[in-house]
Write a structure and sequence with these properties.
The structure is a homodimer. Chain A is an all-alpha fold. In chain A, 72% of the residues lie in helices and 0% in strands. The first copy, chain A, is built from nine helices and no strands. The radius of gyration of chain A is 20 Å and the shape is elongated. The first copy, chain A, starts with a helix and ends with a helix. At the A-B interface, α7, α8 and α9 of A face α7, α8 and α9 of B. Chain A binds a DNA duplex through α1 and α3.
Chain lengths: 205, 205
DNA sequence: AATTGATAGTTTTGTTAAAAAAGTCAGGAA
DNA sequence: TTCCTGACTTTTTTAACAAAACTATCAATT
């Protein structure tokens, strides 16, 4: 026997999947509740039976996307042979996360400054996980005596994340080529690795 | 005797001044040719006698603004007692440049991607000057034997400028408070200095 | 409890007219 | 000639409003 609430959960699951698919490919603003319902061969009204409104549905999907990311971080924490490996992991993982979910994140670009609090919570949670991963890596490196003692690991990691964020392809986008191509992405990655290396060096004795 | 062309230059000068004043306080989009002419007690048509159109006038003002900035850089180049001093100078000078001209630069925010080539030339020129100042500083420091030899000073300076650009206040702007307040600015400056220090450390032996 | 068609309410989009600003020009003053 | 202006034309921005597209609700049905 499958309980009622389990049934509900299954249905919610299917909705989240369909919604995720739409949001991921067309973004928040370019997908309608009708389309999601259509994909599931159910009525739009049913969506509202399971989710209070469109933004709540989006946030629920976001929650799962973020959870996947958080898991990939916590799975790896404390498994690095040195600080550099941790930095590289952070750079690559975050980069892929952003690239693969680019359309999904249009919600952020649209609502810019005034995002719902729930979204901010998720954003902060993600940020904290990234911080934690790297702070741990720094502390480990410190214990191993490879870098000098730091009293402000948090501050330093936050700084690094900001700095990495600022790194961009050399050719200042002269023309409207929204979405950087493969070469640009590679260039950015290379630069970030260089920055990480200098950074690590700067933390050593 | 004042020559004809000198007279013209004087008049142009006055127009540039008035235009600068308007652009600086209200931005490009919120100042009209009529207003500029009004400030000078001359007719709008006369502006068009001296300048082909509004954007050309803006660019001419921009040219002067940039030249001032370039001068402040070239005046200081090679006068630093060490690399750190050069970095601090760069951080403070650029910061002030951006803050004091914030409204003036609305042109950039409006036209985003498709700026006129002339503007891009100025932007690149400024960027190159900043690069040159810091590359020189690095090379000097290198000659003095305080940092290890670098074969890619350009690359490293470019990276630092990008990284500095990414540094922002901790409190991710939760509400729409366009234009960061004094505290935020101070926080950013402090962080940038910290980044510069780690960076310098990373370049040492 | 789960589901839907019909429908109410809201936001986005498209249309058009008026207002404002950019840009032109024939002609007058210096 | 060079410098300058008022009046005029053209282009862009704004405002108002109707149509269309969506979101969201709900009484009725399985």
């Amino acid at each position: 026997m499958i309980s009622v609430t389990e049934q509900q959960d299954v249905k919610k699951e299917r909705i989240l999947e369909a919604a995720h698919h739409r949001f991921l490919h067309f973004g928040y603003s370019k997908t309608t509740m009708n389309e999601i319902a259509g994909d599931l061969a159910m009525s739009k009204a049913l969506l509202y039976y399971y989710f209070p409104d469109k933004s709540q549905l989006y946030i629920a999907v976001m929650r799962r996307v973020a959870d996947d990311y958080l898991k990939s971080l916590s799975d790896k924490i404390n498994t690095f042979k040195d600080l550099r490996e941790a930095f590289i992991f952070q750079i690559d993982t975050q980069h892929e996360f952003i690239v693969t979910n680019y359309n999904f994140f249009d919600f952020f670009r649209i609502n810019e400054q005034n995002l719902p609090d729930t979204i901010w919570e998720i954003v902060n949670q993600v940020h904290e996980s990234e911080m934690k991963l790297l702070v741990t890596a720094i502390e480990t490196e410190e214990k191993r005596g490879r870098i000098k003692p730091v009293d402000n690991a948090e501050e330093i990691v936050g700084l690094l994340l900001d700095a990495l964020h600022g790194v961009r392809a050399k050719s200042i986008p002269h023309k409207k080529t929204m979405f950087p191509n493969k070469e640009h992405l590679d260039e950015i990655r290379t630069k970030r690795l260089l920055l990480a290396d200098i950074f690590i060096k700067g933390l050593m004795y």
